[in-house]
Design brief:
The chain is of the alpha/beta class. The chain is built from nine helices and twelve strands. It is 39% helix and 20% strand. Strands 2-1-3-4-5 form a five-stranded parallel beta sheet, with helices on both faces. Strands 9-8-7-6-12 form a five-stranded antiparallel beta sheet, with no helix packed on it. Strands 10-11 form a two-stranded antiparallel ribbon. Helix 4 links the parallel strand 4 and strand 5. Helix 4 packs parallel to helix 9 and helix 7 packs across helix 9.
């Protein structure tokens, strides 16, 4: 992964902002910070961060509202910070478009690992040129995925927004059609780890992707659940340069 990626940290705790700014800067990231949604909007007017770290508990609009607002115009990777151990907070964050989350108190080293893993998954061009060698378009069931722009196009070539996690999950299926993919494989692909393979977050990612594709889990035409094996992409996949 290339160095000098820009990270926007949105947190009303000054100590956390300063800690992350110092730690991430030492690890070759350019860091900008904001204490609330108003300041975040100002930062986004003059910057295009490669990743946003977004606290949930903020004065004014909370992290959930800000995440939804960001997703209206951008697919930038978002990691949410939560001080609440309640699973519902984490699930809600994923449902509204966050790519990952981490609970406070957290280890800066773990957060750095999450950042690097998420950026690796969302890079458009890899250092070994593997991405350029992939077909430009992957077509299935009336849909078309642009692997260069990371856009999903419907039958009228209208763009359907995908988060970084949505795109990675769809690519995982498209690269292995008609083959069972386990929850462990999905968790490893989305989060770079397999410790939480049974968490509800996996269900959220799958549900969100199915919703984007208009695929009914009870009568699937694209992604089928196979009890005890995981999930199978059952639509025919064709390629186009």
């Amino acid at each position: 992964m290339a160095n000098n990626k820009q990270v926007l940290v949105v947190d009303d705790d000054r100590a956390i902002r300063e800690l992350l700014a110092e730690y991430l800067s030492k690890n070759n990231f350019n860091v900008i910070t904001a204490e609330d949604g108003i300041e975040m909007d100002l930062r986004l007017l003059s910057n295009s961060p490669d990743l946003i770290i977004l606290d949930i508990m903020l004065p004014g609009d909370d992290g959930f509202a800000l995440c939804q607002r960001i997703r209206q115009t951008s697919n930038v990777p978002i990691i949410m910070l939560t001080a609440n151990s309640d699973e519902m907070d984490r699930v809600l964050g994923l449902e509204i478009g966050a790519d990952d989350y981490i609970a406070k108190p957290f280890s800066p080293r773990e957060l750095l690992a999450r950042i690097k893993a998420l950026l690796r998954r969302t890079l458009f061009v890899s250092t070994d040129n593997q991405v350029q060698e992939k077909p430009r378009f992957l077509s299935f069931a009336g849909w078309k995925l642009d692997t260069r722009q990371h856009n999903l196009l419907d039958q009228h070539d209208q763009v359907i927004a995908l988060t970084g996690a949505d795109y990675q999950l769809l690519m995982l299926f498209l690269e292995s059609p008609n083959q069972p993919i386990s929850r462990d494989q999905i968790c490893q692909a989305l989060h770079g780890r397999d410790a939480f393979a049974n968490e509800r977050g996996i269900d959220v990612h799958l549900s969100r992707l199915r919703q984007s594709l208009g695929d009914d889990a009870k009568s699937p035409k694209i992604i089928k659940t196979v009890r005890g094996a995981g999930y199978v992409f059952i639509a025919e996949v064709t390629t186009e340069q």
